[in-house]
Design a protein that fits this description.
Layout lengths: L1 E4 L5 H19 L5 H24 L3 E8 L2 E13 L2 E11 L8 H15 L4 E4 L6 H9 L15
Parallel strand pairs: 4-5
Antiparallel strand pairs: 1-2, 2-3, 3-4
Helix pairs in contact: 1-2
Amino acid sequence: MKIRKSRNNDFEKILQIYLEGSIDEQRLQFPKKSVKKIQEEQNKTKPSIVKYLKNHFNSKKRIFLVVEEKKEVVGFGEAYVEKAEGQVFGGFGRVYISKEFRGNGLGTKITKKLLEYLKKKKVKKIESYVYINNKLSLGLHDKLGFRKEEYKMVKEFK
């Protein structure tokens, strides 16, 4: 297992892992929604997803780290650094591991590397947004010393 800074030729694999992981994340958050429905929605919005992820991937304010197993990218993590009101803060954009490699501590390892990066950048406070039903991610954040600070409330009109 190796964790390294991403390279341009990693983007397609990162996108694939992200799309796979976001389906699982949507299933956690919206258990009544079928995988087929989530995939249909994902296919409709794929161009905007690619554009959004590419903008982050190419941003100088962000870093993408990848996890390799036998020279194959099997996961990635993203962090960002911002300056506002004289303070430096940062956060995680996303951390995703390919389905067949989950449960082996790779998410923890890459998250720790991202924390090291943010600490070197003199970040004083780190933000991370997690879906309320994503118990694995919430557990990881708890284990690494994060605390819950706020809830996002949503109401939809039909």
